[in-house]
């Protein structure tokens, strides 16, 4: 099958990037469990190492199973190429690495996954990079935060965990005017619910650990490139526009055009940072993606039912689901996610921190885990776990105060999930 743009999402999630195995005809993509690939001859090897020919050398750089996944995700996101990595956090570093240099900064949303707040506010300082956090609803603040040293703007489509919806188009208008790439973490929405590139994003990052795999089996990440950014417009992005000494002065953008970022991600990023996805992980994620649209539809249906039930329960203070008509983001969510606002939300329990702890201890179907995007329903008390490293102010800003729990609604029978929440809330609020 050719992966033409005429095919629908449901077809592409099964077929894009894959073809019967040329050696055996195997219909399912084989797990190419190999470290290295035999060169046809010495000239072939030289051409591969010079990036004059595309092929397989060594699995830190490329692997046929991983390559199918890369093409599949790039196609679903409407990008030109993708690089898979060992985790979502690896993907974020891989996205920033070609853009940043010591002294440069990234302008980031205050409403991000807790681990990303820590990565951007603390760890990247070791590279001499900085992050400036701003409220993405304050468009003037985003504009003002961009300075001569800004090399990227970073946000999430559906922010985890606060029920916050980024107006991607409005942020992209600002980054376009400033000539700065926009990176959107699309983990919580998936390309089924949201296609950030169509709304102006330059790069899309994923934790494939979550909905794309869909059953909590493997960690992985992916960086998708829109292929639309002009890396040579000025001298801000020398990794992509200037001669690369490690490849005899090759200029990635001049040589590979729209694929410059993807080639750089493999030839420099994976080669030297080594945050490679293994073929087993790619296999599990490919299996998951085959049913992505079916699962996301059910995640959304269940989340809508459960959020509405919780909102009407007097043991619950409030529910932050952008799919509820009462959400301040309800209108925006309809525009940005016409198929639904995902399966992730938070709610506040009357009784605060202690009641939240009792609630997570009393649930039977919901599992208390630090994960999301699983077929099974999950819950976490962010303030005592994922957001523990953050200050009280950062917790509130991220929508993870002490009285708040985050749920990742699974695809089980919604009546069973509601009954489970009902009995656990009774215990928690007794
Ligand atoms: C989980 C997650 C990450 C980090 O991904 P890992 O695969 O755990 O490294 C980043 N962003 C979001 C929105 C996530 O949910």
Q: Overview of this structure, please?
A:
The protein is of the alpha/beta class and 430 residues long. The chain is built from 17 helices and 14 strands. The chain has helices at 9-15, 42-49, 64-77, 88-96, 114-121, 139-145, 168-178, 190-193, 238-241, 252-256, 260-273, 279-289, 292-311, 330-336, 352-362, 392-397, 414-428, and strands at 81-85, 105-109, 130-134, 150-156, 158-159, 164-165, 182-185, 203-207, 221-225, 316-320, 344-349, 367-368, 378-380, 404-408. The strands form three sheets. Strands 1-9-8-7-4-2-3 form a seven-stranded mixed β-sheet, sandwiched between helices. Strands 10-11-14-13-12 form a five-stranded mixed β-sheet. Strands 5-6 form a two-stranded antiparallel ribbon. The model has no long low-confidence stretch (mean pLDDT 94). Bound molecules: pyridoxal-5'-phosphate (PLP). Pyridoxal-5'-phosphate (PLP) binds at residues 87-89, 113, 115-116, 156, 160, 185, 187-188, 207, 209-210, 219, 221, 372.
Write out the strand line-up for the largest beta sheet, numbering strands in chain order.
1-9-8-7-4-2-3
Which percent band covers the strand fraction? 5-15%
- CATH architecture of the largest domain, by name, is 3-Layer(aba) Sandwich
Overall mean pLDDT stands at: 94
Radius of gyration: 22 Å
